[in-house]
Amino acid sequence: MALRITDHCINCDVCEPVCPNHAISAGEEYYVIAPELCTECVGHHDKPQCVVVCPVECIIPDSAHPETHEQLIQKFRNLTASAR
User: Does pTM top 0.85 for this prediction?
Assistant: First the structure.
């Protein structure tokens, strides 16, 4: 399942640079995560790095984009295949 950033975001800028898939960007009011790029860091790290660094714990699973671990692995493979 992709992650999403809630309106509790304080725009501290720490999540964007740690995302290995470049899924996080500045939105109109606060940072947003592109679900088509978010793999919850599967394939890169054991834990989602944005969640690890977020000081206000405003990054949660996005129930609008449910995915299994296997689907996240496949998404990771697809994303990294185009980078090779």
Answer: yes
